[in-house]
Amino acid sequence: MTSETLPGEQALAFRALHVPGRPLVLPNAWDTASARLVEEAGAAAVATTSAAVAWGLGAADGDRLTRADALAAVARIADTVAVPVTADIETGYADDPAGVGDTIREVLAAGAVGVNIEDGLYGPGAPLRPVDEQAERIAAARAAADTAGVPLFVNARVDTYLRGAGGLGDTLERAAAFLAAGADGVFVPGTFDPVTVKALAEGIEGPLNVLVGPGAPSVAELAALGVARISAGSGLAEAVHGLVLRAARELLDAGTYGGLAGGADYASLNGLLGGGR
Predict the structure, then answer these.
(1) What does the pLDDT read at residue 4?
(2) Residue 161, Cβ neighbours under 10 Å: how many?
(3) Is residue 245 scored above 70 in pLDDT?
(4) Model confidence over 190-235: pLDDT tens digits?
(5) Which of 10, 67, 120, 174 could form a disulfide bond with 159, CB atoms 3.0-4.6 angstroms apart?
(6) What GO MF annotations does this protein's record show (predicted)?
(7) Is the pLDDT of residue 106 over 70?
(8) What mean pLDDT do residues 249-273 have?
């Protein structure tokens, strides 16, 4: 976040980017270099991906990072880009709603003006948090942001499709409860079937966010279905790490360097990050 822009102004600017039929497209970043590259490519905002942030810090995804480590990464990103930043905070880095409120205060201190909060659970037991419990966590996030005077965009992630834990009816029920609790939008990863996406866009009384990857409809096709936000999630990071693995194997096994072709120019990348030779 630039020093000239107040958090409330950035939050309002970010909120205004969620328009059904003219979706906000987010190629998710995980560190300062990827965030600057995403901004340089023309993104109107930068979203973090918890999975890639965790991988970059030597951890697996799934609530394994500490709040401090996760939000330190968010702060570095927010400090290096001028566009609004929204943070993937997994399940909230807290055991109870009060702790989620604490996380939101730290998110705002880190410079982000949006969050994703997911309803999935990790470990043995049910795959999803009960609706009423998740609604309380979202309400706590909303209250913490409102008390701080920042119109934080709270994106409620519903993992019914991602976890195979429900269909359209279950998803719409959860979405309605989370919007009533104070969420601003709903993120439904795990499906990009056009019929399903259209039904979600029509049935959810708020901006719909979908997760895309190979095989998904185009941005234009999703826009026509009423989608307001499109996320790549960990997709960019997966592509980068896949390139690292392929290029490393080629270098070690064949002794050739074809996998290094087409990389970002050293001088341009260094200059983008403020360095010099």
Answers:
(1) 60
(2) 22
(3) yes
(4) 999 999 999 999 999 999 999 999 999 999 999 999 999 999 999 9
(5) 120
(6) lyase activity
(7) yes
(8) 95
- The residues that bridge with 118 in the sheet, in sequence order, are 157
Amino acid identity for residue 137 in this structure: R
Could you tell me the residue ranges of all domains in the chain? Answer: 7-233, 235-277
Q: Shortest CA distance to 56 belongs to which of 30, 89, 80, 22?
A: 30
Distance CA 27, CA 183 (A): 22
Distance, in Å, from the CA atom of 52 to the CA atom of 68, rounded to the nearest integer, reads 16
Extract long-range pairs of 3-6: CB within 8 Å, 24+ residues apart: 5/82
Q: Are 75 and 110 in contact (CB under 8 A)?
A: yes
Give the pLDDT confidence score for residue 1 in this predicted structure. Answer: 56
> Tokens 């719409």 correspond to what residue?
172
85-88 sheet: strands from edge to edge: 24-26, 229-231, 208-211, 185-188, 153-157, 114-118, 85-88, 46-47
Cα separation, 137 vs 143, in Å, equals 10
Residue in 12, 4, 2 with CA at minimum distance from that of residue 150: 12
Instruction: Select 7-233's CATH number: 3.20.20.60, 3.40.50.2000, 3.30.420.40, 3.90.1310.10.
Output: 3.20.20.60
- pLDDT > 90 in the chain, percent: 94
Residue type for position 33: A
* Residue 276 reports pLDDT greater than 50: no
